[in-house]
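Risk register update: the risk of archive-format incompatibility is retired. Evidence:
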Amino acid sequence: MADLALLGRVVEATQHVIDGVTPEQLSAPSPCTEWTVRDLINHVTAGSEMFALAAEHGAVPDADVSRLMGGDNLGDDYRGAFRTASNKALEVFNRPGILDQTVKLPFGEMPASVALDIAMCDVGIHAADIARATDQKIGDDEMLEGVLAVAQRIITSDWRAPGIFGQEQPADEDASAEDKLLAFAGRKV
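Archived output:
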């Protein structure tokens, strides 16, 4: 079952990391090697809006799919764009009965609770990517461990493909929660 409290912590930590990104860092490479920091912020912003629309309407309206999947969703205010999209997602997913519904996303139909878990993992992992790329620390190990537990439950071998998740990388037993999450997502730590 989806954990709305954990989602709230993921969003809060991600917003804190995004707020710490300077305009000069937007073009920096990230551990998600195909994307810059700006690309990652754009992706988690678009994803937040996409999951909110799917939960609210049962599916992402066709008119929004191409914009969300490949357009610029940040404009000139990357911090505010994520804040707006993630707050909308939190508001929608906290509505009574939403998690009992089925939603249709561009990559498949699923229970809204599963969509929430996917969104939470995506945002949490990319928050760690952004933090690493911009020399920040998330600092909420309990939240990172929660995201890792959800990721270990939902990221199966068929998700381990170029452009999605790489093969799990080694991490020392005493590695930080952030390193363990990034290693699980296929990042070299």
